[in-house]
Amino acid sequence: MSAIDLARSIKKACSLEESAPKRKHVRACIVYTWDHSSATQFFSIVKSMPIVNDDVQLFKCLILVHKVIQEGHGSALKEGIRNAEWIRSLGRVHSGSYGPLINRYSEFLYDKMMFHASHRGFNSGTFEYKEYTSLVTASDPDVGFETCMDLMDYQDVVFDLADMILASLGRARSSELRVSALIPLVTETYGVYRFVGPMLRAIADQVGDREAIEHLTQRYNAQHSRLFEFYADCSSIKYLTTLINLPKLPPMRSSQPVQPVQSMQPVQSMQSVQPKTIPADQRLAIHLALQSVSHFQDPVSFFSISQLANEIATSTTPTIPTIIQLTHQITTLLQRNPSPLLAQASQLYFQALLSPSQQDIINANTNLQNLLINSPAHIFDPPTPQTHTSA
After folding, report:
1. Could you tell me the residue range of the domain that residue 350 belongs to?
2. Cα(337)–Cα(382) distance, rounded to whole angstroms?
3. Within 10 Å of residue 21's Cβ, how many Cβ atoms?
């Protein structure tokens, strides 16, 4: 993906239409930072665009920047910190219908950058506990205590922004653009929640006295209740539930910090360990796997496969997310209805993408399209759940 393609994706993600930034354009920006191991070009292009003249474009820009910092290469966070004052300045521009939201969102992103600038144990825009304890020597309980305090303060800032967005929706709750801003906030709040619980338990195990962190435990449980209410509000927004799966929180327990449902087992020691070195090819494989899994809910149809195959075949520089999406569509179809002919045609299609000859790609695509057209319609149907009857 070239810088020109990146600029085109940024422009489309921050279009004038009052609609949510399209996922494919946001993902293209994220993938660019991974492909180039840098977010410098992304911020350079965003800062040069005339988005400050329109509050819709500016609000979409803040969502885009937030998502890239969250999911992009680690350099995206560093670039975000370098550009923190510029991000903050965006909140002083507009007084229109999105003005208050823009002001609060830009202040939130500035606070996020300041938090990460003060806590270098987080290598990315998310909050991974194991990553943090592998990078920071936290044998002193006071360090962990202060980190938890700062994270809880930060969580309150996220809640305030989320409450403001929810309040701006009104009863209709039909504004796709405003609703889309809740998606990175769901990720943000759950990341903090999953981090603080194991950290509190590790501190308690280290000092041997749970009463020493009683105040933090009570605050953590209070935030658990507020988080539950936030996700309940989000679950009532139909459009939002079609985009993401909301986290499921465990029931409240008053005696100790609640245990998050997913992964995150308490770490017995907070001693520093050597960071695990992951080769570049493994990082790429993991990144591609994450991309593929993200499409698990995509509907599979003749139209979707045909459209993706045509898009890739006719593009001079097909994007990684599009290739991954097509791969997921075809493998899902093959799992439902194993077809040696479809498997062979698909293999030839992907092999042709490596060919320097555009004609090879066209021929392989034509072969795949003809096979899809001549396939019976029922092969695209999802599997029917089997029922068991007792004798």
Report:
1. 280-380
2. 10
3. 25
**Eight-class DSSP state of 379:** G
Give me the helix-helix angle, 55-71 and 3-13, nearest 10°.
120
247 lies in some domain: no
Cβ-based neighbour number of residue 239 at 10 Å = 13
Query: Could you give the CA distance from residue 74 to residue 39 in angstroms, rounded to a whole number?
Result: 9
Q: Which of 264, 258, 286 is nearest to 129 (CA)?
A: 264
> CA 165, CA 169: separation in Å to the nearest integer?
7
Which candidate, 146, 62, 73, places its Cα nearest to that of 112? Answer: 62
**Is residue 231 included in any domain, yes or no?**
yes
Q: What is the pLDDT of residues 225-282, one digit of tens each?
A: 999 999 999 998 988 988 888 888 877 655 555 555 443 333 333 343 344 455 655 6
Residue position matching structure tokens 């946001």: 26
Model confidence over 16-59: pLDDT tens digits?
999 999 999 999 999 999 999 999 999 999 999 988 788 999 99
Is 193:224 a contact under the CB 8 Å cutoff? yes
Asked whether residue 59 falls in the same domain as residue 203, the answer is yes
- Whether residue 275 lies inside any domain: the answer is no
Q: How many residues does the chain have?
A: 391
Contact (Cβ atoms closer than 8 angstroms) between residue 30 and residue 291: no
